[in-house]
Amino acid sequence: MTFLEQIVDRLQKAADVTVVREVHDGQFVCVTGAKLLGMTQHARQALREQKLKKDDRCVLLAPNSIRWIALDLALMAEGIVVVPLYARQALTELVAMMKDSAPTRIFCYDADVAAEIKTLWTQAPPISLLDSFFENTSRTITSSGPVRQTDSDSVTIIYTSGTSGEPKGVVLNTGNITFMLGCTNGRLNLLMGARTEPEQVFQYTPFCFAASWIVLLTVLSRNSVLTLSTDLTKLSDELKIASPEYFLNVPTLLERVRTKIQDSVKERGGFAKIVFSRAQQAFIRRHNKQSAFTDFIWLGLANTLMLPTIRKSIGPNLKALICGSAPLSIDTQLFFMMIGIPVLQAYGLTETTAICTADDPRQVEPGCVGPAIPGIEMKCADNGEILVRGPNIFPRYWQRLTDTAKALEDGWLHTGDQGEVNENGNWRITGRIKNLIILNSGHNIAPEPIEEKLAQLLPEAQQVVLIGNQRSFLTALVAATSNNGLTESRIQSAIDSTNAGLPHYKQIRAFQKLSSPLTIDDGLLTAMGKLKRDAITARFANQIDALYQKKLHE
After folding, report:
1. Residues 376-391: what's their mean pLDDT?
2. pLDDT tens, 470-529?
3. CATH of the domain at 373
4. Which residues contact 95 (CB under 8 A, 6 or more apart)?
5. Please, are residues 158 and 350 in contact by the beta-carbon 8 Å criterion?
6. Which of 387, 404, 426 is the last residue of a domain?
7. Is 487 exposed, middle or buried (0-12, 13-18, 19+ CB in 10 A)?
8. pTM above 0.90, yes or no
9. Coil, strand, or helix at residue 553?
10. Which of 130, 180, 307, 479 is surrounded by the most beta carbons within 10 Å?
């Protein structure tokens, strides 16, 4: 069966039980398998009335919701290629992607946004509001199965984040997605084991991103109840209500949770602060196989006095947190492991149908992103670049033949990421080839490890950006909010600690403190919060030049 047929089969079997629910003001809005299928058939009928047909392209611009899911399933069932876009992205960037994908119709969540799209793009195709699309309950519904798809049929065009240039539309086909759902279900089976009760899953990451969408499709194909976040400002409360067993995360959230817990323990002070600090040190030593005689005492005290309460506050039923999209610091992964909540990492790109590797829940190595998924081949090129091939590899970029040929050279996807694999088959991601800083001396430097270390020493900093391409030494931009008390002496102290033990060419010689954080809205971060390095360098060119001039004249 194709992935879509698997999902329909599962929803039919779950006709009378809840499969998806939204949280609104502490209450659930639920749909059963039969209800979701009914909404999907309703949407399919409306699509036919609008004369949409197989291989047309339609933009889906909306936050996560039950109706988003129903329309996505309806579009795919009709053989229409879905172009999901991020509702919080700058409209100018969204319109550029819409123009590139040349859709037949746009489905939008908000009338004001639709009007702005028409202002920016006077030749835009018809725009339908998502909610109104489901309001006509008088139409006659003809029930039918999904349009038959071959493995090579296109299903979606998902745009890349544009960290190293203009976003590109990644075409994924039926074969890619059917293969990937087999892989993700296999990993989740290892985590959850045999059971008859539905799995409880939570989702706050937007469906328009490949990893989040694959998780959605996987959960819909399993015996699960998916709870959707509807208000990120109430995420903590929603998690308590949903009480999930696993959910997908980005590192930023886990870092915030860790910081909040550590700050809370510091505020309590006294014996609790001592126990927690000693337990953390003991756990790290145990991980490094350097345990001291008293470590079991401190870990025992922490497990007796405080860790169960902390664990319960995060999620009493959590079996694991799943993390991807960006590097997660090993300290944060060890922190959650100490608490008793495993963090399972995955690595992949939109071009790999979201995933190449994923931690085996039975053997997690902190700092690694797991082994290659069965059926996927991975190796390192001479320059350390990770190359991948398998049924998960995308067939092409939308309307970009040259870029496609470059990415798929010699039958392997050139990921642009640097990495290494250990004797256990577990991969570690060390940086981006395109992000390499090449000094005038010829030294090549991956900025990510240095940025990560400095950021760990400066939790008050919003972003740390290493600068130095075609320069004689490294400098750094440190972005902070204007009122968080991050002083220049504090930054310099952290830089001194970071430089210790590094070779001379990897040491940071100067820095510039930025008074406000880099944001998505100002075009300096991608929709997933990753640094747009070229844009940052261009925006702060004057400050960077002044920084180097000052240092050279000291």
Report:
1. 95
2. 888 999 999 987 666 788 888 999 999 999 988 888 999 999 998 888 888 888 888 777
3. 3.40.50.12780
4. 117, 120, 121
5. yes
6. 426
7. exposed
8. no
9. coil
10. 180
For residue 368, the number of C-alpha atoms closer than 13 Å in the C-beta half-sphere is 19
Dihedral sign computed on CA atoms, order 135, 138, 139, 140:
positive
Residues 97 and 208 in one domain: yes
Tokens representing 456? 């760990």
Same structural domain for residues 27 and 175? yes
List all residues 6 or more positions away from 452 whose beta carbon is below 8 Å from its beta carbon: 327, 329
Q: How far apart are CA 530 and CA 315, in angstroms?
A: 27
Q: How many helices (H) and strands (E) does the chain have?
A: 19, 24
- Domain count within the chain: 3
Work out the pLDDT band at 142, boundaries 50, 70, 90. Answer: low
Q: For residue 135, what are the contacts with CB-CB under 8 A and spacing of at least 6?
A: none
Nearest in space to 173 (alpha carbons), one of 105, 52, 60, 82: 82
Helix or strand holding residue 545 (H, E) = helix 541-552
Closest Cα to residue 427, out of 387, 390, 392, 394? Answer: 387
Q: How far apart are CA 47 and CA 443, in angstroms?
A: 57
- In our burial notation (b when 16+ CB lie closer than 10 A, e otherwise), range 494-505 reads bbeebbeeeeeb
Domain check: are 234 and 190 in the same one?
A: yes
Q: DSSP for 54-100?
A: TT-EEEEE--S-HHHHHHHHHHHHTTPEEEEE-TTS-HHHHHHHHHH
What size, in residues, is the chain? Answer: 554
pLDDT of residue 164: 56
Q: Do 460 and 494 meet the contact criterion of CB atoms below 8 Å apart? A: no
Shared domain for 497 and 420, answered yes or no, is no
Whether residue 201 contacts residue 224, with contact meaning beta carbons closer than 8 Å, is answered with yes
CATH of the domain at 520: 3.30.300.30
Regarding whether 268 and 200 lie in a shared domain, the answer is no
266: containing domain: 251-316+318-426
**Residue with the larger pLDDT of the pair 145 and 127:** 127
Residue that terminates a domain, selected from 206, 225, 242: 242
Instruction: Compute the 3-state secondary structure of the chain and give helix, strand, coil in percent, each to the nearest 5.
Output: 40, 20, 35
Cα atoms found within 13 Å of the Cα of residue 404, Cβ hemisphere only: 13
Do 293 and 339 belong to one domain? yes
Here the tokens at position 533 are 């390095």
In which element (H, E) is residue 43 found? helix 33-49
Do 289 and 230 fall into the same domain? no
- The mean pLDDT value of the chain amounts to 91
Q: What does the pLDDT look like over 70-101, one tens digit per residue?
A: 999 999 999 999 999 999 888 988 999 999 99
